[in-house]
Amino acid sequence: MDTVELDKKYVLPTYARADVEFVSGKNARLVDSNGKKYIDFTSGIGVVSVGHANERVNSAICKQLSNITHMSNLYYTAPQALAAQKIVEASGYDMMCFFGNSGAEANEGAIKIARKFGERDGEIKRYKIITLQHSFHGRTITTVKATGQESMHNYFGPFPDGFVYADNIAQVESLLDDHTCAVMIELVQGEGGVQPQNKEEVQSLEKLLKSKNILLIVDEVQTGAYRTGEFLASNVYEITPDIVTLAKGVGGGVPIGVVMTGLKEVFTYGDHGSTFGGNFLSATAACEVIDILSEYKKSGDLEITSIFFNQALEKFYSENKNLFTSKVGIGMMCGLRVKDADTLGKIIQSAKENGVMVLKAGKNTLRFLPPLTITKEEIDEGFKSLNRAISSM
Ligand SMILES: *Cc1c(COP(=O)(O)O)cnc(C)c1O
């Protein structure tokens, strides 16, 4: 049986997969099972931040695996301690880390910290967490409920109580009450449509929450690891959240999730745990990815790439205003709003046929999350293919 037949027979049908099977890649280039070549403007949904088959990451992983892969969190793991140091130092915050394996799991950790904080701190038990409409926080029962999209709450109940949705940042204040322990936001909503929040609004929310002793959780699962130009979007927005979650881009393709917080004493022995979290494999990958990206940032090359990519995207946008209504996003997390939702599917399909992979976000946004290390040649080639895709529609 070929891959498609095997998948259809043995893998549960939770994904409407595109009809393509990738077999190899190099930086922003991909090859499928027919030998056809593509430019990758998705980086596996913001994961392969340092490009496909990154030699430094692969060699660090291989070296580590030839010694030891896993021994659990019952013992010290040098790469985990190092990864925590690198993440905290890159963030510039006075925080500590907990390691899990995914974004949803990182958010679960954040919610547990906020709930325990709300239980202990103050006279009455505080448990409510305010999240935003069109947010996305994950697929576990709790993070599905934290996600402010009604369409995701159709089944699976009863859900954990205590999640309240604000239409936008400005509405949050009117929803705060004596039971509120935290507000959880994405600074640029990813799945919701590449929607950046307003910086002043976020900064005044931060002040308001501090004055009320309510925690600010920033879900940086998609925005983190230099996607928006700094290590965290929180750095771009010049705020200091109480809790930050990371995943996607941090491991360069190896599954890892991180919850980091300045509340260093809320969790104590036994409060949280993970079998795999931060093991030798994933933590080694994270260490190398962060080293690569922080050098890339320091050298100025990240900014050069981001400017070049955004100029190419702007040009593509201005030449196709019959299809697109606006360009959105920050850094290398970009989108084009498509005039009507039907056209979006056609663009993505035609792009694939013409050798460039792009993503959908929300109902009507064409989303671009290229590897941060994408080259000028790869960017030019990708937009050439996109132009071909549009003309052949
Ligand atoms: C992808 C994503 C998640 C979920 O991450 P998983 O690793 O799929 O569990 C959570 N929050 C945001 C903002 C995301 O983009």
From TrEMBL:
Cited InterPro entries: AcOrn/SuccOrn_fam, Aminotrans_3, Aminotrans_3_PPA_site, Class-III_PLP-dep_AT, PyrdxlP-dep_Trfase, PyrdxlP-dep_Trfase_major, PyrdxlP-dep_Trfase_small
Top-level lineage group: Bacteria
Transmembrane segments: none
Pathway the protein contributes to: Amino-acid biosynthesis
Protein name: Acetylornithine/succinylornithine family transaminase
UniProt xrefs under Gene3D superfamilies: Aspartate Aminotransferase, domain 1, Type I PLP-dependent aspartate aminotransferase-like (Major domain)
Required cofactor names: pyridoxal 5'-phosphate
GO molecular function, one term: pyridoxal phosphate binding
Pfam family name, one: Aminotran_3
GO biological process, one term: L-arginine biosynthetic process
SUPFAM superfamilies linked to this entry: PLP-dependent transferases
UniProt entry tagged with the keyword Amino-acid biosynthesis: yes
Alphabetically ordered keywords of this record: Amino-acid biosynthesis, Aminotransferase, Pyridoxal phosphate, Transferase
Sequence similarity: Belongs to the class-III pyridoxal-phosphate-dependent aminotransferase family.
Keyword Phosphoprotein: no
